[in-house]
Write a structure and sequence with these properties.
CATH superfamily: SPOUT methyltransferase, trefoil knot domain
CATH class: Alpha Beta
Structural class: alpha/beta
Largest sheet: 7 strands, parallel
Strand content: 15-25%
Number of domains: 1
CATH topology: Alpha/beta knot
Strand order of the largest sheet: 3-2-1-6-4-7-5
Order of helices and strands: HEHEHEHEEEHEH
């Protein structure tokens, strides 16, 4: 019996995006860990996002660690830093803002309709998404967790929400 091998570059080569594919925008609020920033950039590349925006002053960020984690996505995805005040001007007016956060008014990501034109906002590893940003969101979604630990890494939460968005809109 022949050995089965899978080569993702060959499997996914020449995949054409649907004609009506709207690229999501990813916003990371005050993400501190360079590895998390790199993972977010890489996820953005996986999903063919429009842009990754990190709300931060960009100071004291180790670009070499971001690049190591993001790998080839570091140069493949439009990404950068901005302030909270600059964010609104970077988002197209017809995109809906959705925060991934656990709050008293959050809804299960698997039980809510996610729009095609979407901005996903994820928060700081400790304090989450700032209230000023949550107030701009039309929805706040959470990932249901049934184990003892009720916390996910920010990039894991983003991955779950991004691929649920893709499943709902393009699969």
């Amino acid at each position: 019996m022949a050995k089965r091998t899978i080569h993702s570059k060959e499997l996914f080569t020449n995949k054409i995006l649907p004609e009506n594919f709207y690229r999501p925008i990813i916003v990371g609020y005050n993400i501190k860990t360079p590895e998390n920033i790199g993972n977010i950039i890489r996820l953005g590349d996986n999903i063919a996002c429009k842009e990754v925006i990190i709300i931060s002053d960009g100071e004291n960020v180790r670009a070499s660690k971001i690049k190591r984690t993001a790998s080839s996505s570091f140069d493949s995805v439009k990404w950068g830093f901005c302030s909270v005040d600059e964010l609104k001007n970077r988002i197209p007016f017809d995109y809906e803002w959705i925060a991934i956060e656990t709050s008293s008014d959050s809804v299960n990501v698997f039980k809510t309709e996610l729009p095609q034109k979407i901005v996903f906002i994820v928060g700081n590893e400790i304090s989450g998404v700032d209230y000023s940003l949550l107030d701009k969101c039309s929805k706040i979604v959470h990932i249901p967790l049934h184990g003892n630990n009720k916390s996910l890494n920010v990039s894991h939460s983003l991955a779950i929400a991004l691929f649920e968005w893709q499943r709902q809109n393009y699969l």
